[in-house]
Amino acid sequence: MTVSSNGVAKSYAKSTNIFFKVFFSFLITFVLMFLSWIVLSGKFDPLLLWLGGISSFFVSYYFYDLLFPLLEPRYVIIFLKFTKYIPWVIWEIIKANFHLLYLAFHPRLKDLIDPKIITFKTNLKSDIAIATLANSITLTPGTITVSANSDGVFKVHAIDKKSAEGLPGIMLKKVAEVFGEEI
């Protein structure tokens, strides 16, 4: 496409690019909403599928920019990295569950439980990376994120010494890797 002296062709290309970004954000949101409707309802009656489609359309129309704000190529890369992160965090949750099971059934339970509040600072910059780390810590049994601010300062409650020693640890490295941030 050639650029005219008055900038009409340039603005057309820019508006077309934005249209496709908005359209793909809407489309991905619609597909996710409709698939969620199908999975959660478990019904395949034509009327219910139609109602689910209409509901998904309206939700996607009004809120397409909440999940995927103007879809950028880097979001696809982050999504692919995040799909690698999910199995790892699930494995960490399973390991922490067994650790808490050990603590709960140990005869010296009162001696092993030593609750602490740990404060640490990270170099995470984006809100989504900070929220992901905070939620991952909270999902892991034995630890709860008490607070996390936009400066990357976390306060975490840990039930025992072993749970406290692992903070922030490899989880911080994995989250920084997913969102392409330096630690």
Write the layout of secondary structure elements.
Elements lengths: L7 H34 L4 H22 L5 H33 L3 H4 L3 E6 L5 H13 L3 E6 L4 E6 L2 H5 L3 H10 L5
Antiparallel strand pairs: 1-3, 2-3
Helix pairs in contact: 1-2, 3-7, 5-7
Please give a structural write-up.
Strand 2 and strand 3 form a beta hairpin. The chain has two domains: 8-67; 73-178, no CATH class. The protein has 183 residues and is mainly alpha-helical. The two termini are 42 Å apart. It has helices at residues 8-41, 46-67, 73-105, 109-112, 127-139, 161-165, 169-178; strands at 116-121, 143-148, 153-158. The protein is globular. Strands 1-3-2 form a three-stranded antiparallel β-sheet.
Quickly count the domains. 2
Q: Let me know the number of strands.
A: 3
Sheet with most strands: strand arrangement: 1-3-2
Strand content: 5-15%
Number of helices: 7
Question: What characterizes the major β-sheet?
Answer: 3 strands, antiparallel
Radius of gyration, in Å, reads 23 Å
* Low confidence ranges: none
Shape: globular
Quote the average pLDDT.
87
Subcellular location: Cell membrane
Transmembrane segments: 18-40, 47-64
Family: Belongs to the CPA3 antiporters (TC 2.A.63) subunit E family.
Protein name: MnhE: Na(+)/H(+) anitporter, subunit E (Mnh complex subunit E)
